[in-house]
Amino acid sequence: MVEQLPVKQLVGGSNPPAGATHHSVHDFAKSQTEWKCVMYRMVRHQIIMYYVYVLQSKKDKSLYVGYTTNLKNRMISHKKGENFYTKSKLPLKLIFYESYLSKSDAKRRENYLKTTKGKTTLRSMLKDYLNN
Fold this sequence. Notes:
- This protein is of the alpha+beta class.
- Helices cover 39% and strands 17% of the residues.
- The protein contains six helices and three strands.
- Strands 2-1-3 form a three-stranded antiparallel beta sheet.
- The chain is globular.
- Residues 1-16 and 19-25 have low confidence and may be disordered.
């Protein structure tokens, strides 16, 4: 049986709210068992973000809409020409992205932005950038 650890408010940032206390994970880890319990909870509650992004080809100004959970690695992959749809459009520039907590929300948004109406919305949202 795993011992329940006390629940305390964890506060980060430079301006914590009044009455907040600062604690590190190490404050809770008095024994190896407690440390393992804390690490398990941190992994189990890890937040995964889902990104919808827009790339613009510097070659022909075309737009590409994609989806990923790791935007940095995805950009590296695109820039290396590892994506079939964008390798002929190199070089590329990331011009827009949105992040979502829900995979289904991100996929829905990606699919919408690939429609005619979605492309019109996207061009309206990025009007100033695209006209310069």
